[in-house]
Amino acid sequence: xxxLKKIKxxxxxxxxxxxxxxxxxxxxxxxxxxxxxxxxxxxxxxxxLIETKKYTKTFIAYLLLSLVGDVLTSIPYGFNPGIISxxxxxxxxxxxxxKYLSKxxxxxxxxYLLLFGFLFTVIYVFVxxxxxxxxxxxxxxxVCICLVTSFILMNYIESMEHGNFILxxxxxxxxxxxxxxxxxxxxxxxxxxxxxxxxxxxxSNFLFYKGFLFNEQQVSDFFSRIDRQ
Length: 229
Description:
This protein has 229 residues and is mostly helical.
């Protein structure tokens, strides 16, 4: 096994261990259960920087903004700026994906926005009974996640590649995670909701990492073939 593969394997092990510790801290209701939340994302950033050949700034920006969101939502009075940071991370993905869509595919945008907007409204009405001063940040977040979900779905429909499918599954897990997290924050629930929300979030971030890495490697292989011609 090469040195690079050993480093990657070690980071995968570290990621799995931190994920397990994160779940355990929720189970025992430890005071540091929120403080450890950003560390899995840091491991994924490190893994991506090690594995990528042509640095995809979009994914790094997405992870870093998600990391900021993780930190802010883990501290007192940080929820509102935290979910705004999450929303900005989705806009980064939207800006990246829009360049790969044809004009014909763009015609479907309104349809998907209405669909995902309806789903978000249902969650907002039935889960967030009293969002208080978080209403505007939550609405901003809702618009952003509806946009990125629409763009990821359109991107997959236009180019049904493996990497795009992984991104589609990743945003699906993220929607599930955020929906359950909203229930945890604004309703009385047991720890199993919190565990499920965190677990799906960790799976989602890992799938985003794999999806972007897969697409990035395809782009690198494409340019390598051009250089050889």
